[in-house]
Design goal:
Blueprint: E1 2-7, H1 11-23, E2 26-32, E3 41-43, E4 56-60, H2 65-77, E5 81-82, E6 85-86, E7 91-92, E8 97-98, E9 103-104, E10 109-110, E11 115-116, E12 121-122, E13 127-128, E14 133-134, E15 139-140, E16 145-146, E17 151-152, E18 157-158, E19 163-164
Parallel strand pairs: 1-2, 1-4, 2-3, 4-5, 6-9, 7-10, 8-11, 9-12, 10-13, 11-14, 12-15, 13-16, 14-17, 15-18, 16-19
């Protein structure tokens, strides 16, 4: 089993840590954070390269879409495996694709022939209907609904319970 290092130990980082522990995929879940201290905090975010190993995966867990995507790109650029976390209660179609660095929270739905980019947050109860493309660094807040055949631009944030009607942003 591998170790997971989460970049960011705030509220979202703690949520990602909880999901990772529930998955049973990791022997150890630790954090890098610039403002917090504790037994699970290994150092500052900028220290990430010091922890590169075959047994370690990393994932940025920050609410800032641009910063989260930049950190994901930096992690991969130095050859560190970028984790993907999908909660067991989420539905992900076998025909859907989810890129590295994305977190899919409980009760989310990613339907047929969807593509979800790098370092996205698909929050609790968010729904992505068939044929959608979610570009890199997107955040779908709790209960957001993306109806069929939409392309959500990189770094977008779709607010809680917001509905994007079918083909509003055609694929």
């Amino acid at each position: 089993m591998k170790r997971l290092i989460i970049l960011g130990a705030g509220g979202f980082g703690q949520t990602v840590g909880d999901l990772a522990r529930q998955s049973g995929k990791y022997k150890d879940v630790c954090f890098l954070d610039d403002g917090k201290v504790g037994s699970e905090i290994l150092g500052k975010v900028a220290d990430y390269t010091k922890f590169k190993s075959e047994e370690t995966e990393m994932i940025p867990a920050l609410g800032n879409n641009e910063l989260r995507l930049k950190l994901a790109q930096k992690i991969e650029s130095v050859g560190i495996v970028l984790a993907t976390i999908v909660h067991a209660s989420a539905y992900v179609s076998p025909t859907a694709e989810i890129a590295a660095g994305t977190v899919v929270l409980p009760m989310a739905l990613i339907n047929t022939h969807c593509k979800v980019g790098r370092a996205c947050i698909i929050n609790c109860g968010a729904m992505i209907d068939h044929g959608c493309v979610i570009e890199d660094g997107v955040q779908l807040c709790i209960g957001a609904a993306i109806k069929a055949e939409n392309r959500i631009a990189a770094l977008s944030k779709i607010e809680a319970c917001q509905v994007i009607e079918s083909r509003t942003f055609p694929v």
